[in-house]
Structure formats: structure tokens, C-alpha cells
Design brief:
Blueprint: H1 15-18, E1 23-31, H2 34-50, E2 55-57, E3 64-74, H3 75-89, E4 95-105, E5 113-120, H4 122-138, E6 151-157, H5 163-176, E7 183-186, E8 188-197, E9 200-210, H6 213-217
Antiparallel strand pairs: 1-3, 1-8, 2-6, 4-5, 4-7, 5-6, 8-9
Helix pairs in contact: 2-5, 3-4
Length: about 220
């Protein structure tokens, strides 16, 4: 799997991202530590045991805290995105996050998406996301119309599920949640590539961009 090294100077696109189709499916995200993924795995296991028809569970090892979904990105834009995110990241120091309460989309009415919220220094997270959004809008990416709600999606419910099935899934989601209290230290932002296949999406990190000017200065030597 091709991975870019930490982005400190000029960005180079890995060869694997330059060949093949004219564009890739990409997003900007913070990756989760194993301790947080373990909490999510326990929640997914509880939802699986609820045996709700039409409930599509995610693989916890593939969950990311998405800051900006980009959609189809051309190969030249990969470099452009990385450079824009690098400029923003330099102005934001690392911060600490944790898992919060569970929730559903929509917040009222029959559930369609089940998720876990993110707590901790959410003001720092929101500021980082907002600045990334602004920087990428400035280079031609559409601005997200919805308000940023930091969350980790664990399951989706098929459109043909009944009201009772949706309620059963939502009830299981609420009652099973018992986080360990582990923290996640956001020290970098990642440009991720999504590979869609019959078994679901798999993800490839194209760039890891450290937060803070200290990280940028530390690369000067």
C-alpha cells in the first residue's frame, strides 16, 4: 500500500495514486487509536447481537473522524489539497478528544444512521474543521451545507426497514453504550483515499500532516 510520509515540505503524490483512473475518491480525516476502536468494536458487537433486519454495520477498524469529504479528486488536486491542509494544520496545535454519547440521524423520527459522538476539546476540533473547510473552498471544493457535527458512524439502516426495526436498533444502540473513557490525541490530519469494492470500502492514507508550527520548524534541519 502506498503511503506518503509526513507532509513537512513539498508534497509528492505516491505513484499508486498517479496511475489508473483520472481521479480518486478522497476525504480529510483524523485517524483513531486502537483503544478507541476497541470501544467501537464492543458497540458494534452489541448491535450485531440485537439482530435487527436491515442494519448495516461498519468495520470499526475502518472508522475515521471525517473533517471534509472531497468526493472525486483529480491527481493534481491531491497535491493542492495536501498543501492547503498543511497550511491550515500549521496554525493548530495538537489537542485531546474522547468518545461522548451515542446518537442517531435524523435526531428525531425513525433512525437511519447510528453514531457515537466526540467530546473533549471540541472547540479546537471545530476550529480546525472550519479552517480546513474554508481553505478547500478557496481552491474549488464545494462547501458543506450542513453544520459540522463530530461523530463516528457505526451503522446504517436500510430504507426498507420498518419503524419497529428502526426503534429496536436505536434502543439497542442507547442501552449498549459503555465507553472505557480512553482519550485520543489529535496530532495530525490525514488525506485518505477510499477504495470501493463489493465487500465495502477500504482506505489508504495518502498523506499524514502534523498539527502545529513546531512540527513544521522541526523539519527545517
Amino acid at each position: 500500500m502506498a503511503i506518503l510520509v509526513e507532509v513537512r515540505g513539498l508534497v509528492e503524490v505516491p505513484a499508486a495514486a498517479r496511475v489508473g483512473p483520472d481521479s480518486i475518491r478522497a476525504f480529510v480525516a483524523i485517524e483513531l487509536p486502537d483503544e478507541v476502536k476497541a470501544d467501537l468494536e464492543r458497540q458494534v458487537a452489541a448491535l450485531r447481537q440485537a439482530n435487527v433486519r436491515g442494519l448495516r454495520l461498519v468495520r470499526p477498524e475502518a472508522v475515521h473522524l471525517t473533517l471534509k469529504f472531497l468526493g472525486e479528486v483529480s491527481h493534481p488536486q491531491v497535491v493542492q489539497v495536501s498543501e492547503a491542509v498543511k497550511c491550515v494544520s500549521a496554525d493548530h496545535e495538537p489537542f485531546s478528544l474522547g468518545l461522548a454519547d451515542v446518537g442517531m440521524f435524523p435526531p428525531r423520527g425513525p433512525a437511519r444512521v447510528l453514531w457515537v459522538g466526540v467530546g473533549g476539546d471540541v472547540e479546537a476540533l471545530a476550529a480546525l474543521q472550519r479552517n480546513i473547510e474554508e481553505a478547500l473552498t478557496a481552491v474549488g471544493f464545494a462547501k458543506e451545507g450542513r453544520r459540522f457535527t463530530p461523530h463516528l458512524t457505526l451503522a446504517r439502516i436500510n430504507d426498507n426497514a420498518t419503524f419497529d426495526e428502526r426503534k429496536k436498533a436505536a434502543d439497542a444502540h442507547r442501552t449498549a453504550w459503555s465507553p472505557s473513557g480512553c482519550r485520543m490525541h489529535a496530532e495530525a490530519v490525514n488525506l485518505m483515499r477510499s477504495h470501493l469494492n463489493a465487500d465495502g470500502a477500504t482506505y489508504e492514507r495518502l498523506a499524514r500532516i502534523p498539527l502545529g508550527r513546531r512540527a513544521v520548524r522541526g523539519s527545517a534541519g
